[in-house]
Hints:
This protein is about 85% helix and about 0% strand. It is an all-alpha fold. It has a domain at about 50-130. The relative contact order is 0.11.
Amino acid sequence: MGRTETLDSRTPLVQYERWTMAVGHCRGGCGMAKKKSWLKYARYINLAFSFGISMILTMLLGIFGGDWLDRRLGTSPLFLLLGIFLSVGAGFYNLWSELSKLVEIEKHKKLEEDKQHEVTAETCQVGEGEKGER
Length: 134
């Protein structure tokens, strides 16, 4: 057989390239998994820093705001304790909302990865079937 100048989907070279790309993707040969795992950990580190900073800032606001109100109104521990409890509640509410957003993002990404995996698995099966026909 002679070499054809136009490459279409039936050309053995194109079929072989598609099959090797599919098999390489099935075996994790592209290296994107390392980047994705690093970004996943960076997201959690960012969440931890964000939670720590927001908790400290709300605690300081609650303590100083409550102390200021207690000095102004003459009610010594009342507003200080109220400010502390409200700031802790606000900090944990912030953590809860950030975690729920993160869970939604992870669910969406997992759904997309599952769809991509199904497409890749079908491509691998088609590629193996074409290889077996030769």
